[in-house]
Design goal:
DUF1569 domain-containing protein, mainly alpha, globular, DinB/YfiT-like, DUF1569, Four Helix Bundle (Hemerythrin (Met), subunit A)
Length: 149
């Protein structure tokens, strides 16, 4: 399974981000490309330990079980619900959001597993550094596939 701590996997994700354009259209979902970049950036803030959304009641009830079936090589299903605090609904600047996201990915990767958040994921709960690395890759891959890259 791919992991954002692997430099080759990070390079692949960054390359795919470069293939986006302001005119990229989603194959599913409601976000435009700029909103998607901002959403992914907000998720990076959680993994980097810069944002601490509370656990959802549903996550507390079933997050651990869902986590046990989420971590595999299968892509994330289309139209899954998202963490409410990182749902982006306002207009964003494509170029700015793209650069911010790339920098956050590079920072996460270069900081290494020992510096990722120890705060629980808002839905899944406690994550190991390895789970954060795999989860970041899987989340980014999901949204990049959403936009055909």
């Amino acid at each position: 399974m791919e992991n954002i701590y692997n430099k080759l996997h990070t390079a692949e994700i960054l390359s795919r981000i470069e293939n986006l354009s302001p005119n990229s259209s989603p194959q599913w979902g409601k976000m435009n490309v700029s909103q998607m970049l901002a959403h992914c950036s907000a998720f990076q803030d959680i993994a980097n330990g810069n944002s601490f959304p509370p656990r959802s009641w549903l996550g507390i009830l079933i997050g651990g079980f869902v986590k046990s079936i989420f971590y595999n090589d299968k892509p994330v299903p289309h139209n899954m619900s998202t963490i409410p605090t990182i749902l982006i609904l306002d207009d964003r600047d494509f170029g700015k959001e793209k650069e911010i996201l790339k920098q956050k990915i590079i920072t996460f990767q270069s900081n290494g597993p020992e510096n990722c958040s120890s705060h629980p994921h808002p839905f899944f709960g406690k994550f190991t550094p390895e789970q954060w690395g795999k989860g970041i890759y899987k989340h980014l891959d999901h949204h990049l596939r959403q936009f055909g890259v």
